[in-house]
């Protein structure tokens, strides 16, 4: 049987004590062996607000007052974060109508999607219990499905729906996006760049609009290192702060031309367009096509908005809810979860990452609450500057650090006590900083498993087993390639605006709209909340 191994060589794993104590110096000479203290890894002393906040004895921001009777238009309401936003608004505010853009053939189909994907969702159980028999009546009165499509002119809405939005809406929330890291370039540009453009054009025609809210990602900042502040991206800005200018019109034209050219070769068109996106992201200074297109989306919104007030929310890695409406709710295979699941299944015996790097995870309910509180703050401001722009990093690392090694310790603890199957045995994670060494170790480990299972099988069965394990090795390698940028991430996100928001909230608002990431207990979150949530919602 073929053995998946290279020539014997010493494996420089991070388990070695000397390597554990080694400091990692990036291109900028920055020491990224972060200390869990009041000092930023870049030598910048963190403000005290990163650790504690002063009490607010006043009336707070006025969150519930702002949302009373306000009408919202939201895209992406059936997605993970969008759905959680809708649930929280219905549960904790006296919001007026929530107009929900839904991709559907007609109104009947939209109502059917609304019922199956939102009204019947277990996420809404608290509201269901509160309203009892009148639950569906309450929700259907509040949620108005709008037939449309982000990727069509006027968002695919008919004239009647479009005028209803322009006449009635106070706040627009852009939550729709394609989050696949390296999907087709043309598709990601259409959903993450062109769609926000279309929405902003509609926003400029709204009569009572207080605010446009764009849900982005902290990773729009590209391959920069150091402390990243909550600043808007400038049109044409490069992800590395180098010379290559991001010409959005050129990128859009390039994706369209490439799509037309690729259509002639239908067998390879999708692969070619995915490769194009990866190449453009690398050239322009981003880690993947998703973050490049989200960055372009931010740039173009700021460029065309004129005097429309814009609020940009940039979460880091969003994972399952910490507390509300119940702990551990999640939808879709989120960023950390393919890695967590693969490790739990015994498919990932090693990982390509610096164990001391910080992993910036934030629970979905805290992202939702920060968004709602920020909307109220900037929507209610009297005499605010025309067309103000505010950016919020919703991040935990600056105030409540989590190391990569700690994440895997918690995952190991959970699966050791609660294995996915009786036959699954996982070991403590080994870390590598070179792909070739990581790959060799994984292949050797898989080869041992194959040889241990080879006794007594026919040659045909052995060939089948070998093929399966080659596929598993390839999957482990692909996972680590995709998430390598997280494993060696050399930046931290300043979240001063979010901390200031917390300071301005009343005690009651802090209780009802929890945004204080210092209260997260990471071991409890992963061992008792997040991984059980992943198993419940993704593996069953």
TrEMBL record:
Top-tier EC class: oxidoreductase
Thioester reductase (TE) domain boundaries: 74-370
Entry-linked InterPro entries: FAR, FAR_C, FAR_NAD-bd, NAD(P)-bd_dom_sf
Alphabetic keyword roster: Lipid biosynthesis, Lipid metabolism, NADP, Oxidoreductase
Enzyme Commission number, as recorded: 1.2.1.84
Domain of life: Eukaryota
Keyword presence, Hydrolase: no
Annotated Pfam families: NAD_binding_4 (PF07993), Sterile (PF03015)
Keyword Transmembrane helix: no
GO terms assigned for molecular function: alcohol-forming long-chain fatty acyl-CoA reductase activity; alcohol-forming very long-chain fatty acyl-CoA reductase activity
Catalytic reactions of this protein: a long-chain fatty acyl-CoA + 2 NADPH + 2 H(+) = a long-chain primary fatty alcohol + 2 NADP(+) + CoA
Any one Gene Ontology BP term: suberin biosynthetic process
Ranges of residues in domain Fatty acyl-CoA reductase C-terminal: 470-540
SUPFAM superfamilies given in the database record: NAD(P)-binding Rossmann-fold domains
Its job: Catalyzes the reduction of fatty acyl-CoA to fatty alcohols.
Family stated for the protein in its record: Belongs to the fatty acyl-CoA reductase family.
Protein name as catalogued: Fatty acyl-CoA reductase
